[in-house]
Amino acid sequence: MDAVVDLGAGRSVRGTRADGVAVFRGVPYAEAPLGAGRFAAPRPARWSGERDARSPGPTAPQPRTDVPGLPDLSVLVGPGWVPGEEYLTVDVWTPDPGADGLPVMVFVHGGSFTGGAGGAAGYDGTGFARDGVVLVTLNYRVGVPGFLRLPGAPDNRGLRDQILALAWVRAHIDRFGGDPGAVTVFGESAGALSVGALLAAAPAGLFRRAVSQSGGASHALTPAQADLVTAAVADRLGVPATVPAFAALPDEALVEAVAEVSAAGLDLAVDGVRDPLMGLSRFGPVVDGDLLTGQPVDAVREGAADGVDLLVGSNREEMNLYLVALPSPPVTEPMLRAAAARLHPDPEGLIAAYRAAGRGVTPGEVLSAIGTDYMFAVPTARLAEAHAGRPGGTWRYEFAWRSPAADGRLGACHGIELPFVFDIVGRVGTGVLGVPGADRGVRALARDTHAAWVAFARDGDPGWPRFTTGRPAVRRLDTEWSLTETADGPERDLWRGVR
Length: 499
Known about the structure:
CATH superfamily: Alpha/Beta hydrolase fold, catalytic domain
Structural class: alpha/beta
Largest sheet: 13 strands, mixed
């Protein structure tokens, strides 16, 4: 059965309706980024008549995800590049377009700022719509068009896309039954880093609440770091770093350059500043003096996100995804020492502290724990601490359920919480994450985790005590939930003052 929503001004969208949920896919919020427009600020979409929104639309130019020899990551990043001009779009799930005042959640996908899609199978919004939430996912520019610093072009174009998408939600979501004053923006991985940046950069009023899943707000590149990436990309392409030169190149060339620069191991430690992305990506938000005048966490500490309720968290063993699931050589002791030296001024003391805290025995286990904290857990704690002293509630979680995949070595890895948050366990295949959909305890954890996110969007409270400077309460999410005020062990104290 079809469902039609009138957007006003002579525009409407035709979606599908089944089992009490109406779905609208590929609805443009911005004009198609073509030619030199790929490097311009986004402009609101202009069209008229009825749009067919019954099937998935194109995705941003990006590398393939179905690469022989690599595990199935589609549940996390989507199908890869689905060519088409109009990819700056949103997908909407709603229980009733004719309703009024439903809470709204807007999801920002991950993908290292070089890939991903809002239409990934793992982001199916049926569970949210079933529970009375209007769920929106969005596409934004990634890689060179989205985040390469290019003279003559505005920086952070992918972040500007996200802001325009949120403005579209504010202007139109009431037509889908949602309350534009009750919007929660949430994201995972690069999407969580985007949420951290949006807390600092988005105009007031675009969202009321925010959720950061495995992110933080301490990862913006300095201009010098971003310029290093620009020089490497231009060198690979054999053109000067100018808008006219890049505009003359096809998307395929830009995607290939991203892959080559990413594989080259470019070191972003510049002018004594460590790589905030730890080599997991060479692309991301940059301190541009406009949207971002410094690290977003500092803006939050100074009041940029006052009045916004914030839920933040990370997974216990984030880096296992990269060291266990993805092809990589075994970590040796020299490799561990070299990696720790890039992240901390006292690498030997750091390694010893992690081993003393029981955070690993083998070099690979210790490196996973150190990387997990540097990239995810410590920035999450810093964001919680920065927001806890400001107006607006703060809540924190740690996802601790361990996947049995890879003989149990995958554990509580990066992205493992997503099937639980979206409540797709048992409905949608989870690929490399290996979540057993028939396990009753796992299904119960999915039900309870999803319910906490719904409650946060609806009521501004996920169901456990707030995180405060006096009581740093953290909910551990596992088949048995628990509450701790000592989630950050003594080994994490070694990161204080380290940037």
